[in-house]
Amino acid sequence: MELLLHYVWKHRLLPARPLATTDGRSVEIIDPGLHNRHAGPDFFNAKVKIAGTLWVGNVEIHLRSSDWYAHHHEHDEAYNNVVLHVVEQVDGEVTTADGKRLPQLQVDIPDEVRRQYDELLQSDQYPPCYQIIPEMSRLKLHAWTSALQTERLEQKTQAIAQRAKVCEGSWEAAYFMTLARNFGFGVNGDAFEAWAQNLSLSSVAHHRDDLFQVEAFFLGQAGLLAEEAIPERYRRQAQQEGYFTRLRSEYLYLARKFSLQPMDHKRWRFLRLRPQNFPHVRLSQLANLYYSRRSGLSQLLDCETLDAVRDLLRTEATPYWQTHYSFGSESPQSRKQLSKASLNLLLINTAIPMLFAYGRHHGNERLCDRAFDFLEQLPAEKNHVVSMWQQCGMEVDNAGDSQALLQLKRNYCDRKDCLRCRIGYEYLSSSDKPKVPHPTIALLAEES
Questions:
Q1: CA distances (Å), origin 394, targets 78, 145, 420, 428, 445
Q2: What phi and psi values does residue 105 have, to the nearest 5 degrees?
Q3: Beta bridge pairs of residue 104
Q4: Across the 448 residues of the chain, what is the mean pLDDT of every consecutive 10-residue run?
Q5: Are 60 and 40 contacting, i.e. CB atoms less than 8 angstroms apart?
Q6: Could you count the other beta carbons within 10 Å of the beta carbon of residue 435?
């Protein structure tokens, strides 16, 4: 609840009556100050008039006065410049490290703000603020989704930069790791990233002109060429077909040559996974992409159109996997190409973030602009999160919009971080929210 008190102070959502300190001096808030989310006082450089005298300094906020001592601020010189202690409950005097007794302002959170905040936190209906969305201006919603879109790209940039750090500064390796992760299409993303980190591309490069050896590298390092990785009911068939045996023999040779250590095959997930997403098929597609020299960062950077990136990432499984989803288990003949939807996901989660991250790292605004342009050209993703927001009145015209709404759900709604959300702000500050459920609430209830 202290965060709500921060929110009330920051946005001046205070009771409509004269404010006064606990010892009766008048208080006028000129500027609530700059909200500090790190160590130190809660608000920097606030301006408040106390009994007609203007004070410029910091403001500290607690639920109770005694929290000042619970947090040991009385010994911390960083709090000597606090000019006002704002609390919901006064239960004693407070002093700073230099012996100054602080004026205290008791603030009662308005009942309507508290009630609306409780609704946001306790609501089982997602999104809990759906009532206010149809009432908001398109301009405000567009500004918020634009900010969310940039925020999401920034987060992906941080993840890519961290991979580059793990790869000893190699952006080429970081790109391949990012590409590999997204070949997991969510379910096996972590396993694919761990596999890519365990894969020595410099070793694979010695044999990249031989697709069979590349596939042996990829499947072997994934632990999928271990006999125990094949379900017992398929082992005999896999051995009779011969392809597994040949790959395994080739990998054992490569493992001795390059001192390779495969990952644990148990890290791969198969339960409730569509066969086309089985790691064997995805690794085969990735091996084909690498063999054809279309998995490099330089090739991506050369692509100036969305179609060029699609052509770059388009791939299919090798011949054996066109009739199999796993070793020894036959399937109908299919080239097992990346679908249009899968290609779009690779564009959204790999190519575009990489262009933005690399452009940001090298100060190349042209690459950053290209990333945003590609997002606007791609169709919006289709999933239950985007569908819910659409039913609540949000406009979703392209992949940039859908990415923004995913960011909104995961980083704000799921965390109940309504105080940092602009829709949450509108909800909390509105005194005339619609009381009649939105017409699509029945649909939302059915899907939740």
A1: 44, 10, 19, 19, 17
A2: -115, 120
A3: 85
A4: 84 83 93 85 93 94 92 89 93 92 89 74 66 90 96 96 95 97 95 96 96 98 97 94 97 97 94 89 98 97 97 97 95 93 97 97 96 97 91 92 96 88 86 44 34
A5: no
A6: 6
d(CA 341, CA 353): 17
pLDDT of residue 414: 84
Pair of tokens at residue 23: 């010892």
Q: Coil, strand or helix: which one is 137? A: coil
* One-letter amino acid of 426: E
For 169-210, give the DSSP string: T-HHHHHHHHHHHHHTTTTTHHHHHHHHHH--HHHHGGGTT-
- Distance, CA of 180 to CA of 286 (rounded, Å): 8
Tokens of 425: 């702000």
**For residues 441 and 388, what is the distance between their CA atoms, to the nearest angstrom?**
10
Task: Please name the residues in contact with 279: beta carbons below 8 A apart, sequence gap of 6 or more.
Answer: 184, 188, 191, 192, 222, 224, 268
Token pair recorded at residue 47:
């301006």
